[in-house]
Design goal:
By secondary structure, the protein is of the alpha/beta class. It is built from 17 helices and 13 strands. The relative contact order is 0.17.
Amino acid sequence: MRQFLTFIFLSCFLGLAQAKPVELILWHSLAGSTGEELAKLVTGFNQSQKDYAVKLIYKGEYIETLTSFAAAFRAKQPPAIVQIFEVGTATMLHPKGIIKPVDSLMDEQKLPLPKDHFLPALRAFYSEENQLQAMPFNASIPVIFYNADALEKLGYGENSFPQSWDEMEILAEKLKNAGYSCAYTSAYPAWILIESFSAINGLAMIQGKPLQANYNNAAIIHHLERLKRWQKQHYFEYGGRNSDATVLFTAGRCPMFSQSSGSYTSLAELVKFHLGVALLPLDKNVSKIRNNNVAGGAALWAVSGQNPAIYSGIAQFFSYIAKPEVQQAWQQGTGYLPLGTEGIYSAITKNHPILKLAKEDLANPQAKQTPQHLGPQNQIRIINDEALEAIFAGIKTPKQAIDDAVRQSNYALKRFLRITGE
């Protein structure tokens, strides 16, 4: 009898042990409403099957997550999945052995991923030699939000918003004459005013072997000289790094504001006027055609050194994320871009202004795609933010500031190449 009871106990214990799902730790940087939407997505995955359970751990801002991950990886205690912002891509790829490439992971698990339906620029950014390295997740593009009520009074709207910087200057003058002390401001100035400007105009910021920063070109210098002149004319107001300039727009001071497209939902709830949105202008003196923009946001990386059960779960999770219905819910809840706007994702694009813009800015397979994730982009962005602060504070001329920034960037590149052995 005792043996029979022992057998029953062990059978129940083993049954419970076998029923316990494999835990997948995911470190991330999404707080507030976007963090809540991420929790909904993860709950949906956890409830869709019984073998795996994703556990979310918030690690702070993007740079804090990257720093924490580097320390954990060295200590051989990393998570299974980590969310890293786009400028940390090179850090994740070099040196080799930090991550498990997504294409390799999905092939090993024999799970398809609809890459052919992804936005071309998004797929290209997170690929090396046409092999997807990370799972694109919360993607965005830089756009211009505008006070549609203010512009309508001047005869501007969705179909007549300036497509070039020269046309935008004409509008800025009209806004000043209408009584606005500022026409335009920008969040994330290094990303938008330097990186995105370069991308859509087909200008590489870093290239060559060994890699060299070369964005102190005539086009960038002219662009920053224009913005400095606009500052003196009260067409442009520098509002600081990151999203510091948001209040200049939401308070109605500056009717035009460049920011991440992922801010659409939150801005629409904040402002008291009708919110318009448009693509960033092209500098038609530099390029007559619009090239693919830079994709902002972040991706999910599968970390190397995990056991087969963990990798099986990660592959299942990535496959779940790629489902059109999951992408639609994610886009509607957060304002971030879906993985694609065509093919299996075509139904998501209906009646959403941001998605219409994304198709123009990221989905042209024929457009030029400037090289991305070359070197320590996160460091280079900080260097460029410092340069822009010096320009708009009147400490340096645009040429002096960008020449100095390129020198500092090349020093950072040399250190990066030496450390990674690339």
